[in-house]
Amino acid sequence: MFSCAQGNKGKEIEQKTDEIMKTIDIPKQYKQEPFYYCGIYSSNVKWELFINDVQMFSHYQGMITSPIVPLNYNILQTGKQKMTIRIYPSEGKQTLGGYATFRMRLFYNQNFRDENDPEIDILSYELPYAQTKGLPYVEKTFEFEAEVPYKLIGWTKSKDLTKVPDLEAKVVAKIEQLRKVLENKDTEAYIRVVMPKLQEQFVCLYATQTEIKNYLNGLSLVNSEALEGLKNIKILPINSYQIVLEPNNKVVKLRQSDKDGDIIDGVVFEGISEETGEIETGSYLFRFHIPEGSNELEVIR
After folding, report:
1. Residues 6 or more apart whose Cβ sits within 8 Å of residue 287
2. Which residue(s) pair with 123 in the sheet?
3. CA nearest 20: which of 195, 273, 241, 166?
4. Does residue 151 form part of some domain?
5. What's the confidence (pLDDT) of residue 3?
6. pLDDT for residue 198
7. What total number of domains does the chain contain?
8. What are 265's strand-pairing partners?
9. CA 293 vs CA 165, 172, 298: distances in Å
């Protein structure tokens, strides 16, 4: 009975995906598909990475981490790009201290699908120990040239949110609306809401029709890959939040803290790990903008 029900559910999801696929503009495929990355190694610091004044990645735990962050999602078109790094002390410290470590390397591949395509270095940075150990905060900004075959609208035609009245109320209402969608496991409504950002994501990732279909199948709120390994999942109410504007003042998000005090953005959920039996916390990240000619918040990144 169970496997039969699961099979029917899977067919239903695929049928809905086929319907959605008819509404999507499949991105062009190019002879060269360049991809930009930032490789970071850090320990004993928190940090944020921004590309073109929109947050690309963050690390707030202060532990050792070494991500390679793909950057194309915030590269809207060919030309000069801006990268900003903000580095903060680890939890409980007022200054960066003697053990703060941060190294960054910016590079790209001319064709990311070619496994033999060499990595081409653009620039690198290492936090200077002697000059920064007594500082409460370090911010570094770099510029680099990127060449991509696509052009995205992104936030170039978005309103300045500092001039929008009742922005906080609008963001909270939008998050509450999305909480209900997630609680009800309404996959169709969820995909409708996030489709504007997905459409641009597919373009900058050079996604094929097959890749897009597989991705959409994985977005099911009933058996989402994002929640794999968790049971008894609960969408949590908004708690102790703040409204955070990206530096460009055109993108906004709602930020909360989880039960351990860690920063977490978007709609927060918790579930019990099937492996350890412990409660784990995660989130669906939603960032919003208001397009020119509209007064409504829309998901953008």
Report:
1. 54, 246, 251, 252, 253, 265, 299, 300, 301
2. 106
3. 195
4. no
5. 38
6. 95
7. 2
8. 255
9. 15, 22, 12
Residue 295 token pair:
């007064």
By C-alpha distance, which of 53, 54, 50, 146 is closest to 104?
50
Please name which of 301, 294, 203 lies closest in space to residue 246, comparing C-alpha atoms: 301
What pLDDT is recorded for position 277? 93
Looking up tokens 């695929």 gives 14
Query: What does the pLDDT read at residue 4?
Result: 42
Domain limit, last residue, from 146, 181, 210: 146
* 24 plus 168 within the same structural domain: yes
Predicted pLDDT at 228: 75
User: Residue 127 in contact with residue 101, Cβ under 8 Å?
Assistant: yes
List all residues 6 or more positions away from 208 whose beta carbon is below 8 Å from its beta carbon: 26, 29
Intervals of the chain under pLDDT 70: 1-13, 223-226
Q: Would you state the pLDDT for residue 223?
A: 63
Q: Backbone phi, then psi, for 71, in 5-degree steps? A: -110, -10
Q: Which domain holds residue 232?
A: 2-28+156-299
**Nearest CA-CA partner of 46 in 141, 136, 143:** 136
198 and 127 inside one domain? no
